[in-house]
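Troubleshooting: if your tokenizer reports a length mismatch, compare your output against this known-good record of 259 residues.
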Amino acid sequence: MTEVIRGGQVVSRVGSVLRALSTSPTHGLTTAEIAGATGLSRPTVHRLLAALLAEGFVDREASDARWHVGPELYLLGTLAADRYDVTELARESVRALAELTGESAFFSARRGDETICLMREDGSFPIRSFVLYEGVRFPLGVASAGLAVLAYLPEDEMMRYTADDRLVERFGPRHSGASIRNRIAVTRNTGYALNPGLILEGSWGMGATVFDAAGRPAYALSLTGVESRFRPERHQELGALLLQHAHLVTQRLKSATRA
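Known-good structure output:
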């Protein structure tokens, strides 16, 4: 029996397909990979992709049958950039963090229950972590950027989000609600978030919250690198730089809003 998809369900499923594709802008994804990422059946994903292809929202490489975001999304994105692009306000600080620390520096934005990496700048240290890159999404509480944002949400909102163990199946037992709340307490004490290799062993990160003009935790600056570069004796130095530049970007956002 043919599956019937209506109304808001269609929009939700199209959104999940496009978000899945956005996580692999260079190499694209197969139909099966998109189905796995979205939890949708392969026939449903294929029907949605065929409709999106006809409208130019996705593209497909004939050589390997991999799907990519399409040209129409680029055109729409350029129109939306004037209103929503805040990366220019963070670019100077991201570059400064990379230059001052030698690590890879990032600017991420909150979107619902996730953070999405908007900008990456690599420092001079030759060994790098590639867990975080432009376009990648992580749930709040995962990676230092998501932990930094989650730590400064209103208490009731944070508690609701960490009331269950929703992240354990995908990211392991150290992402239980109780474990995340413990890391939030440390983050609030130091001012910056620390990810001690919880996503990929040996790949560490630190992050600081950037607040929007209304004072909401909407963005984060972060640094990632190999464990040997994030020894405890360096945490205070890196944390101070992150907090300094997070404050600068927050002030730029407020000034841009007033203007």
